[in-house]
Amino acid sequence: MSDVELDPEIADILHGEAVRQAETLQLIAAENFVSRAVLTALASPLANKYAEGYPGARHHGGCELVDAAERLAIDRAKRLFAAEHANVQPHSGSSAVLATYAALLRPGDKVLAMGLQYGGHLTHGSPVNFSGRWFDVIGYGVDAESGIVDYEQVRALARAHRPKAVVCGSISYPRHIDYAAFRDIADEAGAYLIADAAHPMGLIAGGAAPSPVPYADVVCATTHKVLRGPRGGMILCGEQFAERVDRAVFPFSQGGAQMNAIAAKAVAFREASTPDFRAYAHQVVANARTLAGGLAAEGLTVTTGGTDTHLLTVDPAPLGVDAATARGRLAAAGLVLDTCALPWADARGLRLGSAAVTTQGMAEKEMARIAALFATAIRSEDAGRRVRDEVRDLAGGFPPYGTPGEGTTSAVPAPGVMV
Ligand SMILES: Cc1ncc(COP(=O)(O)O)c(C=O)c1O
């Protein structure tokens, strides 16, 4: 695109956000930096195309090319995750969960899912979400000591309540999920098994985490996070659920598909099928483990004693601060992350992820440095400014959108410029 004047106020915001992302460290476990190819598809003329329905059966004319994009996305998703059927239209992870429930359940049905206080997502039964309003959701937990899913408790609850669906998946569980155990529990209760793999989906694509596809009736996920695609959702299932899932997405819960996002999903699935992405996914886990080891050595309590994935949760209490204070100090130092539930207390902890910093090219050495900076920033408010300079310096060596002047210039314009 050229000779188009960008809204100057929004241009300033885009520029400011690009600077913020470049000068701080994104340790939010759900975030990543997509490729320029993904950004290009998102900002393409496909953004203007209306396409209600599915390829070959649209309610609008002129869909030949977007049909081809959606078919590519579907084929690539099926191949990448060895799934019989893929729906790539959900606008978000939450939309994917909504459509999955709509495909399998009726309002009032019982659902057994991880309790929110242990790391369940809003769509797993929160009273402020459709899931908690329209379904009778029973929560399972993790062992208070180990932080590991209490599979015996899940089995006992399934036996007692006979839910229509069992949901496995979490926003903050750092270990691999035992999908075979969940399948067994669901079968015993005569329940569907739904895997909400929003977090590990990129690790699954890269062969760094086990896949729920052979076990779950329906797998829903986001295409952002470790998978490094556009913000959006997807659903995978066997042929026997294909029609129900498709109808639950459109026309039941969505209208026109966002064809620019679907093209960007196709791009991301292609990228995720490369050897480079496999190496990336394994490096993400190696980095999270180094980060966990470094934080434990600094005195923080690491939930479950470590991680199998891109994310870890820690309790800052041994350093004498609560999670909200710690997050504030870390933010002031340029370390951006979230608070989260802790298995053993009402007090909250901190959740970190390694996906974005790994995309920037950081490895174990940088993770060790981040762990040290992290602990220094938490221990003392006064250290914040010094740590902030060091964080800026570290981030500056790994620009998220490439180095201007080296052919991979920043994805966003400078304030007020013509693009
Ligand atoms: C397990 C899980 N499910 C669903 C979602 C919802 O995704 P979205 O924010 O795209 O609606 C998330 C997002 O973090 C998630 O972690």
From TrEMBL:
Its EC number is 2.1.2.1. Coiled coil: none annotated. One of its GO terms (molecular function) is protein homodimerization activity. Pfam families: SHMT. It is found in: Cytoplasm. Pathway: One-carbon metabolism; tetrahydrofolate interconversion; Amino-acid biosynthesis; glycine biosynthesis; glycine from L-serine: step 1/1. Residues 5-372 form the Serine hydroxymethyltransferase-like domain. Residues 397-419 are annotated as: Disordered. The record marks 224 as: Plays an important role in substrate specificity. It comes from the Bacteria. The keyword Transcription regulation does not apply. InterPro entries: PyrdxlP-dep_Trfase, PyrdxlP-dep_Trfase_major, PyrdxlP-dep_Trfase_small, Ser_HO-MeTrfase, Ser_HO-MeTrfase-like, SHMT-like_dom. Its main location: cytoplasm. The modification N6-(pyridoxal phosphate)lysine is found at residue 225. One of its GO terms (biological process) is methylation. Keywords: Amino-acid biosynthesis, Cytoplasm, Methyltransferase, One-carbon metabolism, Pyridoxal phosphate, Transferase. It catalyses: (6R)-5,10-methylene-5,6,7,8-tetrahydrofolate + glycine + H2O = (6S)-5,6,7,8-tetrahydrofolate + L-serine. It is an enzyme of class 2 (transferase). GO terms for cellular component: cytosol. Its cofactor is pyridoxal 5'-phosphate. (6S)-5,6,7,8-tetrahydrofolate binds at residues 116, 120-122, 239. HAMAP family: SHMT. Belongs to the SHMT family. Catalyzes the reversible interconversion of serine and glycine with tetrahydrofolate (THF) serving as the one-carbon carrier. This reaction serves as the major source of one-carbon groups required for the biosynthesis of purines, thymidylate, methionine, and other important biomolecules. Also exhibits THF-independent aldolase activity toward beta-hydroxyamino acids, producing glycine and aldehydes, via a retro-aldol mechanism. Thus, is able to catalyze the cleavage of L-allo-threonine. Homodimer. This is Serine hydroxymethyltransferase.
